[in-house]
Amino acid sequence: MHPAAEHSPLGKSSEYISTYTPSLLFPIPRAAKWAELGLSAETLPYKGVDFWNCFELSWLLPSGKPVVAIGEFSIPADSPNIIESKSFKLYLNSLNQTAFADSQDLQATLHNDLSFAAGKPVSVRIRSLAEVEAEGVMALPGMCIDGLDISVSSYEHPRPELLRCDDSRVVQESVHSHLLKSNCPVTRQPDWGSVVVDYCGAALDHASLLEYIVSFRQHSDFHEQCVERIFLDLQRLLKPERLTVYARYVRRGGLDINPYRSTEEVAFQNVRLARQ
Question: Which InterPro entries does the entry mention (predicted)?
Answer without folding.
Answer: GTP-CH-I_C/QueF (IPR043133), NADPH_dep_7-cyano-7-deazaG_red (IPR050084), QueF (IPR029500), QueF_N (IPR029139), QueF_type2 (IPR016428)
